[in-house]
Amino acid sequence: MSADTTARPAAAPSRLRVWFDQHLHGLAFSLGRALRKPWATLLTIAVMGLALALPLGLSIVMDNLRHFAGSVQQSREINLFLKADVDAAAAERIAGTLRGRGDVASVELRTPEQALAGFRESSGLGEALDALGDNPLPSLLIVVPRGDDDAGLVAALEALPQADQVHHDAIWRKRLDSWLRFGERVVQVLSLLLGLGAVLVVGNTVRLDIQSRREEIGVLQLLGASDGFIRRPFLYLGVWYGLGAGLLALGLIAAAGWALREPLAALSASYGSQFALKGLDALHSGMVLLGTVLLGWLGARVVTGHFLRQTRPTET
């Protein structure tokens, strides 16, 4: 029996392979066009990176301020000064009763002797205090509330028959919260405006590239190329711009954080605090890069869609 020498036709590539090859070609082609115009590419990336670094830096500053404000435990303390005739045993019973409340996180008792010793050490007026004779300082209960609503607890402490004065500086905390909310809204508005500016920058750059290839695009349309095939390299060009701008913005934020870390540490140490500047972790950095890539893609998508609608050949 003779061998079958009939040649078999080569298998046609799958649609998935064709789709993958087209996207890989568009990705490489767009990167090549960006690298052939290095100064224009760097200028576009620099403008986008600077525009995106501003709201990103402000957002990090607001997060650090919120973290710092939440870490200042003294801002939540309520100072309950007892009457002079309340002795240490009675003050301890009052502290135990307050510890059993659901809206109280902790209670610290400072006796008149402890308060006088602390004042003597901090003021340096030991001889003058000795001349006073009797200790004029009352017992003090430092109450830390649980939760954010302190008004009910303050009213309950003021109603105690043993209470002489209640000091609770909550006004500045409310003002700080208002300023933080206002700052968050400012960051949101700036992010929207500068994000729109980044989209316009990418769109204008892609528009110039489209104009330089207008005749080539016209030939492709006459040959029956689809809008997706024509649009794909320009979309990837916008992606490259967005990726470069995101990396530049993250680099600027990292450089600013490195420059501010040492003076901020010295300032915090002067107040006896261990506060350190908190930057972006890997997850948030990845989200920033994803957002900038989407902005670049959106700018290119809007411009190419508008151009293709205007130049689509009319049927006769």
From TrEMBL:
Coiled coil residues, start to end: none
Transmembrane segments: 39-62, 186-206, 234-260, 280-300
Source organism, top-level taxon: Bacteria
Annotated InterPro entries: ABC3_permease_C, FtsX, FtsX_ECD, FtsX_proteobact-type
Keyword Glycosyltransferase applies: no
Domain FtsX extracellular: residue ranges: 77-166
Protein's membrane topology: Multi-pass membrane protein
Subcellular location: Cell inner membrane
A Pfam short name: FtsX_ECD
Main location per the UniProt record: membrane
Domain ABC3 transporter permease C-terminal: 190-298
Keyword terms: Cell cycle, Cell division, Cell inner membrane, Cell membrane, Membrane, Transmembrane, Transmembrane helix
Record family assignment: Belongs to the ABC-4 integral membrane protein family. FtsX subfamily.
Complex and partners: Forms a membrane-associated complex with FtsE.
Function text: Part of the ABC transporter FtsEX involved in cellular division.
Protein name, per record: Cell division protein FtsX
